[in-house]
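To: structure subgroup
Subject: Chain for Friday's discussion

All,

I'm putting the inputs and outputs inline so they're searchable in the archive.
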Amino acid sequence: MSLTARLLNTIERVGNRLPDPVFLFLWLILGLVVLSLVGAGLGWSAVNPVTGDVLQAESLLSPGNLERLFIGMPRTLADFPPLGIVITIIYGASVAERTGMFSTAIRGALLNAPRFILTPIVVVTGMVSHHASDASYVVVIPLAAVIFAAAGRHPLAGLAAGFAAVSGGYAGNLFPGASDALILGITEPAAHLIDPSYAVSIAGNWFFIVGVVFVFTPIVWFLTDRVIEPRLGPWTPTSAAPATAEEKTPLTSAEKRGLLFAGLTILAMIALWTTVTLLPGSPFVDIDAEPEQRFNPLYRSLVAFFALTFFGAGAAFGVGSGSIKDHRDLVRMMREGISQLAPYIVLAFFAAHFVAMFNWSGLGPILAVNAAASLRELALPTPLLLIVVVLVSCIFDLFIGSASAKWSALAPRFGLGSLMATMLPYAGAFLVAGLIMVATWVALDLPLGPGVGVHYDPPPPATASHLPADGGIAGPLAPPQAAAAAK
């Protein structure tokens, strides 16, 4: 067995031994309680370089924090930002998914793809299909294999291209969607550790995710057509791979009518939002803000926009295609969509309390200030620093499960070595291309999204009178250059 195969098998065994994420958060909470006791006992502290406030570690078993925990438990869950955002998006997306709009649109896009540009259409469709949540894995990947087979190409090449687009290209899309809304709910509380007034927009990374589509698409196209498919060899259809399949059935007249209704609804929603934005006194424009911040209310309204657009387009498709008979079908679809969130809501309860308790302990800002001071001592160029962050996140991906587990359960059963040999070229190319994109974006100071740059200018630092006697970070966590880091 090769070294690579042994390493992958080890990672698989270790990953399979990890407990359910709910218990991971429970163990993290218990560890956090112990760490807060140690930090409070040893007097860990730091100075916020932006506000000048002295940050002190607090025990989570103090009377005040115990009161927060038990009396405020319902509020802690209700105030968890990702929960409200995800539920809002799901109300609309569940209608669009359960009427069949998402799967029909994906099927129509792939069925009509000319053979010579079949791969890039599969890739772009796979990236855009993230708006469809689970449908991106359940529909795009097997359908790509079927469409490739129908075109006389190797179905495993189509499957590989679809998987690379849906999973490897998860950051790419033409428009923000539910995944961006979820990330927004996690990013904003993290940003508040440094600047409580900082607002994160769902469109804050719009330009970057579009860039991912344009960069990754030719990569998958080249690797699939020139590397993966030739390596798989010629493919001959057999009785085990029938020529007909439900997924490649042409769209019916009802489905086409439904897509027409849905498209008109989307155009109407865009026109409505544009009109409201341009009207004098629009609630989506803050005329008193700095020019680059004036449209922040519009960007923050995009969660509602996508939820309403998914709902309206899904309902219009349902009426046009006949999958919706009356208003009760709409209510049923929303109920079913929310019911699918049950595992997430269970996880959110423990995640919300971990995040809240981390904030109550004061350890988050203390660790952030210390980490910033340590990174400052390294004096890494900003592009290189972000590359290090990306590499660290790649390591996390090996141990934190993702939606690819769903695909693994549905995928054809061929050897792990064959799977890795097929997908490793995509993974390596994505890593290199992603690192180059990050470095280029920072080096050229390109905007990440509307009104959002890659650099952040914090408020003026606090005056020296706010600093403690030692001039900066105090306690056993303090780095040697604490005073310089706090100024």
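Points worth raising on Friday:
Confidence is low (pLDDT under 50) at residues 239-245, 398-412, 462-487.
The longest helix spans residues 416-443.

D.
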